[in-house]
Each structure stands twice: as C-alpha cells, then as structure tokens.
Sequence to fold (343 residues):
Amino acid sequence: MIALGFLGLVTDIYGAVPDIESIDYTNAQKYLAFPDSLGDRVAILQQAKKLKGESDLTTIRNVLVWMDQNLKYDETKAYQWRNYDDVLREKAYGGCADQAIVCGVLLKGSGIPVVWVKSMDVSWIWDLKKGRPFTSWSGHVFLEVFIQGKWSLLDPGTKTVYQNYSPKMRIISGQRLAYHKGNDPKDMIMSLQWEEWKRQTETYFREMDEALLPVDEKDATVLLEKAYVIGNPPYYQAMTQMAVESGLHVVRSFNTEYDKYLPEAQGHVLLIETHKGKPILPGEVLERYYPKALRGISCPSKRIRIKDTSIVFIEFSEQLQGINGIEDKEKGSANKPDADDGK
Fold:
C-alpha cells in the first residue's frame, strides 16, 4: 500500500488518486451530471436529445453510430487534453480516452448514468512490476452505464456492452485491470494528459499488491511449445499428427480467418500446407504478419524464423509424387511375365 502522505502528494500533482471504491452505485441518478470541463453543456444536451432512443440500448447504438458517422480516428491527437467541444470542432478523436469522453457525455445527456473507468493491460502491469522492457503504456477507457435497471460495462471502441457484469469486477474485457473510476475524466488524469498519466500509472502500479493480478503468463514455464496449423483436409490432420509426434502442442488448425489467427500464432510454431511451392493461403496475407516469410519455401529445410516465430512449410506435392512413383513401379511389376523357374 502507498503511504497516506504520499497519496496526498499524488493528488496535488497528478489529480485524483486512482480509486474504485468512491462510486455510489446505489444512487445511479447522481451520475447523470458531468463537469463543465467536458464541454458546452447546452450543445451536448441538444445533440443528446436527437440521439435518445426508445430504449437504453437503442440510445447507445444511436450515439455510437453518430460518432462513427461524424468523427474519424487521428492518432496525432492521442496525447493532448481534448473535451467534447474540441473533438467535435476537429471532427476527430485520438484514442479511447476522448472517444469515451464524447460517448459518456452524450449518454448522460440522453438520460443514461455513466461512470468513466480507467484500466491497464495486465500484461503491461506485470512488465512494469518485473522491470521487463515494453514499447508503450497500454491501457483502455471503458464506461459503466446504468441500463435496464443495472450497471453494465460499455466499450465504445469495440461497440460492445457487457451486461453480465458487476462493478466489483477488477479484471475486465481484454485481460485489463480496472483501477480508477470517476465522474470527471480531467481530474482522473486520462492518457490525454500524457506525461501526468504516465507518472500516475507508474507510481500506482509499482506499489500495487501483486495478489490483485492474474498470474504472470510471461513468467510461466511452457512444457510443450505451441503450434498452429494452416491446412485443408485431409492434410491438416497429417500435419497435426506430425506436430504432436515432434512434441508440439497444437493449439489450432485453420484455413480461414487469417487476420484473426495469424497474429495469435506469433511467437510459436506455424506449420503451413504447400503444394508445388505455393502455400494454401495468399502469400501477401502471410507476409502482412510475417514479412519475407515466403523465402522459407526455397530453403532446403523449408523453414524460416521471423523474429520469434518458426514457420515450417510442409510440401505435400513431393510426398504425393513419391507415392505415385511407388504405385507406378508396382503397376510395372504386375504387368511383367513371371520369371522362368527353369521347369
């Protein structure tokens, strides 16, 4: 735990201390209000009125559709404080924080109580606590919304409402830890206040009790290396058997949804069915995730390593040619006259 004196210092410099216990969930109407720091109240209420639907879910859909139609993503605006007025004037949001601010105030203006929820990726938290290198701070902003008589979790980015939800949950969608809830995003310190947010999160998570986290998956000992198989029947069954006999654990075999499963295979072994030097998936799709992977086809071993992923091309045409050669020899032998036994 962080000492109380230090918490006071954090509050003075970095805004409100990260806290998930201060929300009064028994008084949902309290969270219809929003501070003036989030934008022009009159403009927000006027727009919210146009988006209000016959049900809470319809209202949420209307708000999300309106945002998609009127705002575009601009990553250059991700690390500067911007409220509803700023986002609407520039017609662009920089990330999940200002996206959640716009969505949140419109829902409040439409009559849906909202609480902002800051979260950080569990994997990032472990990297920080264990001193492992990471490329960037990694978190997400959700909204708790009071709809249909109960609190649910809304992710404006993925347009998803999680209704089987309790505000007591700490680990939420995407293996993220909820660590700060409030009604004033500016005082909470969002990633829009980039440097302050980084200092606040680093201080908070370095001191946080590790027992609140799921197990550290990166610190686990893998007993069998994972393998992914790209193949069509009946070849994928043979490839799976080959992998198992080699001591690999086959997690998945697939021949569609490459954009979903190819990233999942990163860091593991990827077996790919090929015929006459051509893989069954489009080469450009493979190299979108594994640049220059097709070079492995021309290697004698038909293997290539792309960063931490081992890719093995299984060439079936050669094996089939071998089978055909055996069959041809057998046919030839069958057509020959029997040898003279000398009788």
